[in-house]
UniProtKB/TrEMBL annotation, chain A:
Belongs to the binding-protein-dependent transport system permease family. LivHM subfamily. InterPro entries: ABC_transp_permease, BCAA_transport_permease. It is a multi-pass membrane protein. The chain crosses the membrane at residues 57-79, 91-110, 140-160, 172-191, 225-242, 271-291, 297-315, 322-343. Coiled coil: none annotated. It comes from Halorubrum lipolyticum DSM 21995. Keywords: Amino-acid transport, Cell inner membrane, Cell membrane, Membrane, Transmembrane, Transmembrane helix, Transport. This is Inner-membrane translocator. PANTHER family: BRANCHED-CHAIN AMINO ACID TRANSPORT SYSTEM PERMEASE PROTEIN LIVH, HIGH-AFFINITY BRANCHED-CHAIN AMINO ACID TRANSPORT SYSTEM PERMEASE PROTEIN LIVH. GO terms for biological process: D-alanine transmembrane transport; L-alanine transport; L-isoleucine import across plasma membrane. GO terms for molecular function: L-isoleucine transmembrane transporter activity; L-leucine transmembrane transporter activity; L-phenylalanine transmembrane transporter activity; L-valine transmembrane transporter activity. It is found in: Cell membrane. GO terms for cellular component: plasma membrane.
From TrEMBL, chain B:
It holds the Pfam family BPD_transp_2. Keywords: Cell membrane, Membrane, Transmembrane, Transmembrane helix. Coiled coil: none annotated. This is Inner-membrane translocator. One of its GO terms (cellular component) is plasma membrane. The lineage of its organism: Archaea, Methanobacteriati, Methanobacteriota, Stenosarchaea group, Halobacteria. One of its GO terms (molecular function) is branched-chain amino acid transmembrane transporter activity. It is found in: Cell membrane. It comes from Halorubrum lipolyticum DSM 21995. The chain crosses the membrane at residues 30-50, 56-79, 86-106, 118-142, 149-167, 236-253, 287-305, 325-352. InterPro entries: ABC_transp_permease, LivM-like. It is a multi-pass membrane protein.
């Protein structure tokens, strides 16, 4: 006992920052408990209903899963290609616009001009209600849209790689990072040119789309449930791919030690291709799901999400797929529950602050910098 | 590089006077910058000469202003990135800090005119703005510099977004008003104090009451003389001030770069480990240069946005502003101060303003109605309608073009136009060995 205690004290002395963060985190937890219990002791406590806290937590999990799904691709490109891909956010937008175009085409075919459907209501005067895309009324359209988002974004990511990144394979990470900023500009503004710049509604609203979970005091939207199922399904598929297939083993080997992997005879370019297909596809799928969650779409929403995705990936330890998922959940929950303590103007800033704190105290991330394992 | 060309041109006589002029311009960085400006003016004059002298001078004013402010920001970034290899992509945030602090310090305490301030003189505000940018830079640098370059990039981007979101927040505005009695104005921003250059020409800055100098200038070339709008003339006077600051930044950075401190910086950029093992305090030097760079970014922000009447966080200080400045530095060549100035001018005129002006001119020529959307333009199957749509929506195409330029430069010319990554760190020229001396063999 004595030895463990003294080692804890020593560790705390060695890491004053960690101690401070742990203290602040503990304070927030005590405060939360006091708030939930309805107690109030000076500045601590207050009143917050368990319902509100529950719905905050649930919203955080939903957003977190979407961010985590997007983070997988970012983490993979970082660990296998060794650069921070700033065009990743715009791959989310690519998936969202193309995927919803396909979903609209199926949901509204016949009644509404095709150009209006494929451009996600940029052309023509159809409203989101006319098209009526909703998981309960047009489940096939939503599912096919998700698949299309995955496939088209994978193709776009691969094309970007062939055109921009492949000639730079042997360059340093910062040079490729700058090129990826260029690629981000190209993709984002090509989307604006084709799909227009205004924010618009996408999903139709349906009566009785909320399923109430009475015991938890939660009201869960059918779209939220779809997102959770789809995101978890994709993450599980990713897990089995990484652990059980030859490709997954090769990817983990490349991420772990590139030179060793090359010496062993792993076909590097084929692994890189697979990385872009899977990472890009997951980015597209998560962008599609994010629009399903928010119900609106805008050409630069993926770019605005990018920093949150980076925060998630860094939190989990950049390069680790499981870390990205865990980091996404943490960031999502911080994003929604921080409104208990601070004005909602700052919830995004709180997520970035968590990321920066993590980088300063434990740059290797929650999972200790394990690459893609 | 420049020495070589200088030597070769001394031996070969130039063919003509113009060739000699071009040769001289190529030899000196100043000549290159001025030559670029002249070329830009020529194109601007060609684009607008049909609309009269006022439009020509007005367009030149806009282009020069943008070129100079981008040059200022690019110089500040060049100190951090070009000299020390610190990949700071939070430029927009530090500029916002500078200009907002200046605004808060200088604005009138009377809340009747928007967010209240402290009502102190302008120079105090400028110094305070630089100080706040420097202090936040210090706080960011202390821990962040231990990180790898790409982590530093993400952290600085995060900081710049946190700054923007805080300035945007009305809760923070109220908090400031209650605690220190000054406000940021939240999302609607704040008006900037009057430009002192305006007071040189107008009594109390009021239009219609010119000073003696104002009378003289307005009477000769202004509205009562050659017919150039008085506001454009006042802007030109401010541009002269900006040019002074660009020269000041340039001289400061050049001196810094040639000092022992600057040589250590370049050594760190090229190989941190070697610099460290030679006994240089790498961390301290990095922190110093980061703080100086942030203070200069704050000053650049003040000179740029402080002169624009009103600042607000969201359209003006988005991360894309940082990338513009980066593109300017990359075009010029990171590590070269002359390159940063040139890159700023080329970016602002050719890449930023150019496509918009050319697109607008083209649109006037095309005789077709603009289709309401891309899909509508496509289904007409009419190239003219499509061209009308494209020229009317030139802004997104321009960004696509910028992205292509960025990728192209990274592929083909990673050192930019004037990049001098390879340079002598020694104070004496080592490439020229005295002939007849001892040899190693």
């Amino acid at each position: 006992m004595g030895t463990t205690e003294s080692s804890i004290v020593d560790a705390a002395r060695g890491r004053p920052g960690l101690l401070l963060v742990a203290f602040l985190g503990g304070l927030l937890l005590v405060d939360l408990a006091a708030k939930l219990a309805g107690l109030s002791l000076g500045p601590i406590g207050g009143a917050i209903s368990a319902d509100r806290f529950g719905s905050n937590l649930w919203n955080g999990v939903v957003i977190g899963l979407v961010i985590g799904l997007a983070g997988i691709g970012l983490s993979m490109t970082y660990s296998i290609l060794s650069f921070a891909n700033f065009s990743h956010g715009d791959l989310l937008s690519t998936g969202a616009f193309t995927g919803w175009g396909v979903a609209f085409l199926i949901a509204g075919f016949g009644d509404i001009p095709v150009r209006s459907l494929l451009t996600v209501r940029d052309a023509g005067g159809a409203t989101a209600g006319d098209i009526g895309a909703h998981i309960l009324s047009t489940p096939v359209a939503i599912l096919v849209g998700l698949l299309a988002a995955f496939a088209i974004t994978a193709a776009v990511a691969l094309a970007l790689d062939r055109a921009f990144y492949k000639p730079m394979r042997d360059r340093d990470g910062i040079s490729i990072l700058i090129a990826s900023i260029g690629a981000a500009l190209i993709v984002r503004y090509a989307i604006q040119f084709v799909y227009g710049s205004d924010r618009r509604g996408v999903t139709a609203s349906l009566d009785a789309s909320n399923l109430a979970f009475a015991p938890l005091g939660l009201s869960v939207n059918a779209h939220e449930l779809t997102i959770v199922v789809a995101a978890l399904g994709l993450m599980l598929a990713m897990h089995f791919m990484l652990q059980r297939t030859k490709l997954g083993t090769a990817m983990r080997a490349m991420a772990d030690n590139k030179d060793l992997a090359l010496v062993t005879g792993i076909p590097a370019e084929r692994v890189v291709t697979a990385t872009w297909i899977i990472g890009g596809g997951l980015a597209g799928a998560s962008g599609y799901l994010y629009v399903l969650l928010r119900g609106t779409i805008q050409f630069d929403f993926g770019w605005l999400l990018l920093l949150l995705i980076f925060a998630a990936v860094i939190l989990g330890g950049i390069g680790s797929v499981y870390g990205a998922i865990a980091g996404g959940l943490v960031i999502g929950i911080v994003f929604t529950t921080s409104t208990i303590w601070i004005p909602s103007d700052f919830n995004e800033a709180a997520a970035f602050a968590v990321m920066i704190t993590m980088l300063l105290l434990r740059p290797e991330g929650l999972f200790g910098g394990v690459s893609t394992a | 590089m420049s020495d070589d060309s200088a030597r070769s041109s001394e031996t070969e006589a130039p063919e003509s006077a113009t060739a000699a002029l071009i040769d001289a311009a190529r030899r000196s960085d100043l000549g290159l910058v001025l030559g670029t400006l002249l070329a830009v003016y020529l194109v601007a004059a060609l684009l607008t000469f049909t609309d009269g002298l006022n439009s020509v001078v007005g367009l030149m004013r806009t282009l020069t202003f943008l070129g100079l402010v981008y040059a200022l920001a690019a110089l500040a970034l060049n100190l951090q990135w070009g000299y020390a290899g610190l990949f700071n992509i939070g430029v927009a945030g530090f500029m916002a800090l500078g200009v907002y602090t200046m605004g808060i310090v200088v604005r009138s305490p009377d809340p009747a005119f928007g967010p209240p301030g402290f009502g102190l003189p302008l120079p105090v505000g400028i110094v305070a703005g630089m100080l706040v940018a420097a202090v936040v830079g210090l706080l960011a640098a202390l821990p962040a510099l231990r990180l790898k370059a790409d982590y530093l990039a993400i952290v600085t981007l995060g900081i710049s977004e946190i700054i923007r979101l805080i300035l945007q927040s009305s809760a923070f505005d109220n908090f400031l008003r209650e605690t220190i009695g000054a406000g940021t104005g939240g999302g609607s921003g704040m008006g900037m104090p009057r430009n002192p250059v305006r007071d040189l020409f107008l009594v109390d800055g009021q239009a219609g009451t010119p000073t003696a100098l104002g009378d003289l200038v307005f009477g000769t070339v202004g509205e009562s003389g050659l017919g150039i709008a008085n506001t454009i003339l006042i802007d030109w006077a401010y541009i002269a001030v900006l040019a002074g600051f660009v020269i000041g930044f340039f001289v400061l950075l050049e001196r810094l770069g040639r000092s022992p401190f600057g040589r250590t910086l370049k050594a760190i950029r090229e190989d941190e480990l070697v610099a460290d093992s030679l006994g240089k305090n790498v961390d301290l030097i990095k922190i110093k240069v980061f703080v100086i760079g942030c203070a200069l970014m704050g000053l650049a922000g003040i000179l740029w946005f402080g002169s624009q009447g009103n600042v607000s966080p969201t359209p003006q200080f988005m991360p894309v502003l940082t990338f513009y400045v980066f593109i300017a530095v990359i075009i010029g060549g990171s590590g070269s101060n002359a390159g940063a100035v040139l890159g700023g001018i080329v970016f602002a005129t050719v890449l930023f303003e150019g496509p918009r002006r050319v697109g607008a001119s083209l649109r006037d020529v095309i005789d077709a109605e603009t289709p309401p959307s891309f899909a509508d333009a496509l289904v007409t199957l009419d190239p003219t309608a499509f061209l009308a749509f494209a020229t009317d929506n030139i802004a997104p195409l321009q960004f696509v073009f910028l992205g292509l330029i960025l990728v192209f430069i990274m592929h083909r010319r990673p050192d930019g136009i004037l990049g001098d990554r390879i340079e002598t760190a020694a104070a004496v020229d080592l490439s020229e060995r005295p002939s007849g001396g001892e040899t190693d063999e």
